[in-house]
Amino acid sequence: MKLMTMTALACGFAGAAFAQNDCATGKTLIEGTFTVATGNPAFFPWVLDDAPESGKGFEAAVAYAVAAEMGFDADQVTWVRTSFDQSIQPGAKDFDVNMQQFSITPERAQVVDFSTPYYSSAMAVLTTNAVVDGGAEATVSSLKTLLWGADANTTAVPMLMDLIAPDKQPMMYGDNVDVTAAMQAGQIDAALFDLPTALYLSAVVVNDGVVLGQFPPERSENPDQFGMLLEKDNPLTACVNAALAALSDSGKLAEIEAEWLQATTGVPVIE
Amino acid sequence: MPTRRQIFEARQRRRANLIAAGSTGAVLLALIILVPLAPGWDAVQRSFFNGAVFAKTFPGLLNAFLMDIAIFAWCSPIIAALGLAVAVARDLRTPALYPVKLLAIVYTDIFRGLPVILVIYLIGFGIPGLGLPRPWNSPYIWGSLALVLVYAAYVAEVIRSGIESIHDSQRAAALSLGLSSSDSMRFVILPQAIRRVVPANMNLFIALQKDVALLSFIGPVEIFRQAGVYKSLLANFTPYVGAALVFLAITIPATRYADHLMNRQRKARS
Question: Which GO biological process entries does UniProt record here (chain B) (predicted)?
């Protein structure tokens, strides 16, 4: 973590040197400030302790790295909170970019701009040991028979229908917290999340929780790729994309991923 | 043959109607012309009044609305029965039954005082969390119970106000005719009381029809949640407008009917 902050700071100083002729000049909401939105609350491991200002957590770290690449110092990055609905509503936005595991879809892209993906996620099945003991296996035919839940605001819903097509109508909830409450109450057997979120929930939030298996990103037709969300036709999108491309080429993005999301291996793959 | 006075009054009425229609038309016209002049109108129209999205999602919304109707259908008779029981319990005058009366008072105080959504959350996740086996931990059961508890408290208060509106002399008269106090409640007081509070209860049931949507917070995919799913898939708020239209199609006739009942009652009394 310390290393991360150091690198973010170092990048910030390096970037500041050529900030003047940078792509982002004049394109941000407030001149000289890069405003990043996240969720309220922001969830682990994307943001640690709901404190993105610390630069800790995958998305927080990416935000600072992208900012640095575009020529903003760490102290020129400000954070705001938005819901999903605020990010897609018509009208002026109060952020330059919004990062809260937004999956890039063509329908959403008609309303807002997405950067190139900064992370490709596998979808994973969160369940409890009790359900596994009851005979649930990491196969589609076994998963069909479970009672499913999902966060209604996420692309987990169509994925659930496409990949698993459960026998019973799935339950839908407003956020992760409600999904896990329902799982704890035995009202649902399993839920679909992106893998890092599923691992966190199984380890920390859900008593007796376990990640049964994952659908690797390349298996589904529509890999769940997270992009930064910007206002439609925002000229800043090109700058963000350039910054992400540079981070990807230099291996920096992979480094950040390894630091914050490294525990994503070892989960059985669902055939 | 109308009198001169009647002709004059008819002309006055016609004039008033014309002015009312004219000013309403002017306001509507102003709205229709002015709102689209707002700079963000195109974006708002795309996000909220999108024909393509509406056509695509409306059948799914209608289908999900069946869930709302089902929940309403099984909740409302239970609410009516429980509300009546609580109202009668609050009117008990036998000293030995005071604990029952106290319970009814505490119950109405608590459930009229809490927001519906809070009760739904607490009961919908809390009681199944005690470790109940399926199907007894179903969100349909406990969510419905939450609605029943809250709405029965309101209905009970409305019925009680009806009971209190019947003059005590009627009770005294019934008792003096030899009816027991439970019989006088059953045959004399309640039939009149309930007739008086029908319009007020009608309003409560309209409110219930809307609040059924709150059950979506604990899992059931009814019309509000279905609209939310479409919203996040299509990044467009039009499905919510569609859901609003479906609700209005049910609730506007119901409110008109309640108004009609209330008017009829007022006329009958005056």
Answer: amino acid transport
Q: Measure the CA–CA gap between B84 and B82, rounded to whole angstroms.
A: 5
pLDDT digits (tens, 9 = 90+) for A87-98: 888 888 899 999
Domain boundaries, chain A: 34-120+224-262, 123-219
How many beta-carbon pairs under 8 angstroms link A with B?
90
| Selection from A215, A234, A201, A259 nearest residue A65 by Cα | A259
pLDDT digits (tens, 9 = 90+) for B42-79: 888 888 999 999 999 999 999 999 999 999 999 999 99
Give CATH superfamily name and number for A123-219.
Periplasmic binding protein-like II (3.40.190.10)
DSSP sequence for B59-116: HHHHHHHHHHHHHHHHHHHHHHHHHHHHHHHHT---GGGHHHHHHHHHHHHHHHHS-H
Q: Which among B125, B133, B235 has CB closest to A107?
A: B235
Residues A129/B122/B79/B188 CA torsion (nearest 10 deg): 140
Chain A residue with Cα closest to B139: A187
Test A91 with B43 for CB contact under 8 angstroms: yes
What is the ipTM for the molecules in this complex? 0.81
CB of A201 closer than 8 Å to CB of A83? no
Query: Any chain A CB within 8 A of the CB of B134?
Result: yes
Is A186 in contact with B128 (Cβ distance < 8 A)? yes
pLDDT greater than 70 at residue A218: no
Among A16-25, A68-77, A199-208, the least confident range:
A16-25
